[in-house]
Amino acid sequence: MEEHSARHEPAPGALRDAYPGGAFRGVVPDFLARAPAPPPPSSPIRVLPREVAERIAAGEVIERPASVVKELLDNALDAGASEVAVELRGGGLELIRVADDGCGIRGDEVELAFARHATSKIRGVDDLAGLATLGFRGEALPSIATVAEVTMLTRTVDEEAATSLVVHGSGVLRRGQAARQRGTTVAVRQLFQNVPARLKFLPAGRAESLAVGALLRRYALARPAVRLSLVIDGHPSFRASGSGDVRTVLGELYGEPVALGALTIAAEAADGRIRGLLTPRTLTRPGRQHVTLVVNGRPAANRAILAALEGAYRPLLPRGRHPIAAIAIDVPPDELDPNVHPAKSEVQLLREAEIAEALAAAVREALGQAPDRPDESRLFALGPTQYALPRPLRRIAERPDSPYDDAPTQFREVLPSLTVLSQAHRSLIVAEGPRGLFLIDQHRAHERVIYEKLRERTEGGPVEAQSLLEPIVLELKPHEAARLEERLAYLEALGFDCQRFGDRDFLVRAVPSLPGTENVALHLQELLEEAAAEDGGWRGRLLTALSCRAAVRRHQKLDEGSMRRLLDELAATAAPATCPHGAPLVLHLHDRFLERQFDW
Ligand code: ADP
Ligand code: MG
Predict the structure, then answer these.
(1) Angle 153-155-158 (CA atoms, 0-180°, nearest 5)?
(2) pLDDT tens, 173-184?
(3) pLDDT score, position 481
């Protein structure tokens, strides 16, 4: 990290100034505080020298209305805006208007802003390394003006009046003065009217409005301190209050159940930090677009990172369902290349694999810790007559601090304080805790406990075996037999006494000593076949199958003492909320859920 400080010596607090909201409030890694300062309010706009312009990945960035919105939004945020209002008509073809309260452009530079490769954000290629702004190519405004009529109204803090300019193609149509507070409004009309080919292949207006909505949601999560609003065809679509709190933004965008239920993750890897909020398996959406990745304050895409996130969820989610997540990754500036994609949307991370792995581990850990809650979004979808409606968002915004300080329950922490009330269906432990009621699947809970005990044995713990009264002979297929023989040491650590004799036969004299040993003995054939499976996952699957066979079954009466012991043992495991197959084992009826359901 020392290398970075040698190169950039910005003023302290530079990051706070660059990102008024910060990606995640209160979490400003040291190395980011040393990022280069953003352009001061009056940074002059200059045309980049040709050799600089040529080294920046160029490309046609204006493909569709949503790309116009993205570029204008980037500009507003780079200008330090704390409020940005976006308006869309006719899917953006009729009108796109973005108004901000940022630093504005000086009257004598407004024309220059529309010149190709004119920017106030970088001077040379070196500035790309520690880039703190979203834009840097000086291409957006001229590109938009090529395919639309652009009206700009802008004023800096020390000017008397705002400058208005209408540009179409490469020519200025009108210039004038008008009244305006500090900031900039850009209105784009007649988009693509002069490019009939482009117009023909555009998706329908409604699809474009949806895309713009998705874009704005990502920005709202990336910059929670910015008041961001979207109006579509005269109707308010959403408004983020600029609270500075990501959980609050989640509530404003997706409703209270999501804000209340989102799990927190935090991890460090490869000089980078990962922070995030993500929904448990019960709060999902049919589309992938609700995962927001923010890299160094920039809403971004990165295939490896997103695949790692999806992968961590996969065993828990039904097909076609996806989480809602906001993940912020902050890495030292020189480990990031934002310049690989013409629209700057795909970023490249130098140590991508390490970060992806750390993210996946953090997500698995969070999901393994999180008791299920009822999926209230589905309950609400059934309508107000059957179920209470979520509290109106307005009430969330009224409160001074985040209404969601009540972080999701860490099951391991509440387990010891649970009082066992009874057993339901001879399958579920009913318990009461400080934060509501808990229903715990006895079979899956026991599986988790046994699984972790078995894993300890394979990591050098004592071997615990139980001899069989009569040795059992099992026959495997020849190729299975060969593989199993190589794996006998692993089986021995678990407590199996198993020997090969002849071509395909194995003699088993002892099995792991476990609560349900008889049942293990009954399923020996299946277990040994699992142990002889071809692919690399055989260890995990053998442990899972063993714990499944040895665990207490459903429809089995448990007395209070055994239920209590089971909960205590569960509290000592690494992932007490999921069974080794990955399925949830606890349902939490949170006090707040009960309050809402009964309208207390
Ligand atoms: P870039 O953002 O890559 O610099 P643009 O073509 O998007 O290029 O904008 C050119 C310049 O115009 C910016 O560098 C900035 O100085 C100025 N500018 C554009 N939009 C705004 C805005 N909303 N507020 C203040 N300045 C702006
Ligand atoms: Mg720009």
Answers:
(1) 170
(2) 999 999 999 999
(3) 95
Element (H, E) at 381: helix 376-381
Gap between the terminal Cα atoms of the chain: 53
Neighbours of 25 (CB within 10 A): 16
47 CA to centre of ligand 1 in angstroms: 12
Query: 325-330 and 272-278 as β-strands: parallel, antiparallel, unpaired?
Result: antiparallel
Closest CA to 571 of 452, 487, 407: 452
Phi, psi angle pair for 315, to nearest 5°: -60, -15
Task: Please give all residues whose CB falls under 5 A of ion ligand 2, grouped by chain where several chains appear.
Answer: 75, 135, 140
Q: What is the pTM of this model?
A: 0.71
Q: Which two tokens stand for residue 203?
A: 């998706």
- For the cut 50, the answer to whether the pLDDT of residue 360 exceeds it is yes
Closest approach atom of ligand 1 to CA 186: 23
Are the CB atoms for 414 and 433 separated by under 8 Å? yes
> Which of 170-179, 239-248, 547-556 ranks highest by mean pLDDT?
547-556
Both tokens assigned to 284: 């999902």
Q: What is the pLDDT of residues 167-219, one digit of tens each?
A: 998 789 999 999 999 999 999 999 998 888 888 877 777 889 999 999 999 99
Within 101-205, strands assigned E span: 118-119, 149-155, 162-168, 171-178, 183-189
**3-state secondary structure at position 187:** strand
- Atom of ligand 1 at shortest range from CA of 139: 6
Tell me how far the alpha carbon of residue 284 lies from the centroid of ligand 1, in angstroms.
37
Kind and range of the H or E run holding 486: helix 478-486
Contact 304, 357 (CB under 8 A): no
CB 584 within 8 A of CB 448: no
Residue in 119, 123, 137, 188 to alter for ligand 1 test, most ligand atoms within 8 A of Cβ: 119
Q: How far apart are CA 595 and CA 600, in angstroms?
A: 5
β pairing state of 291-295 and 325-330: parallel
For residue 520, how many other CB atoms are within 10 A of its CB? Answer: 23
